Amino acid sequence: MAPLYKALPYQYLGVRKISAYCRCDPDALRAFLPDEFELLGDVCEVFQLEAPDAGPLGHYSESGVVIPMTFDGTPGAHVALEYVSSDDSLAAGREIWGYPKKMAEVPFRSLENGGFESSTIRRGTTIISMKFTPGGDAFEKPVMQPRFQIKTFATADGTGWDLYQVIRNDLANVEVRDHQFGTVELELKGSDDDPLDRLGVESVIGAESTLIDFLLQGGRILKSLDAA
Fold this sequence. Notes:
mainly beta, 2 helices
């Protein structure tokens, strides 16, 4: 037997993430949320990160869009779009917590001015491009933890779902080793398969760079729903 990913937990060390917080049309954001979730505010996060040491998942990079929401009155956030550079991270993310991960190239590099730049390239098209420069103003961020996802598995005959669950995922032992506010140059390009152009982005209210360690554990099954 050669499983694609190993058993939890996974210790992540030195994860560098750059984030752009975007004010969007609320109706556009709402369209990205499953019916079980309620939109919380009008600001989403577009992020790109590099994980140089993710325990048994090794080194990979990823990007995505996170939308603040509530489930049964509890605030958190939902990862609506997500792209990752390795197959084991993709499989673990989808099969354990229900993250909507897709394969992409996500090159990430440091700049001489202390900033960072990254892009997401899917099927030959650059769909996200970000360049972070330190030195921006502080801003108020929406609630972005814990994560709430819908975990689904389709039936073999394609007529419905074998599984349809609401999953909560909390990070443990989070240590912030570096944090900087900054400015960001952000470009999004969408398609029917990757509808980033439908986020309804009106402005970027702030940007940040973080360097963190954390422990990734199993999620909690909050509710099993009828097949969709």
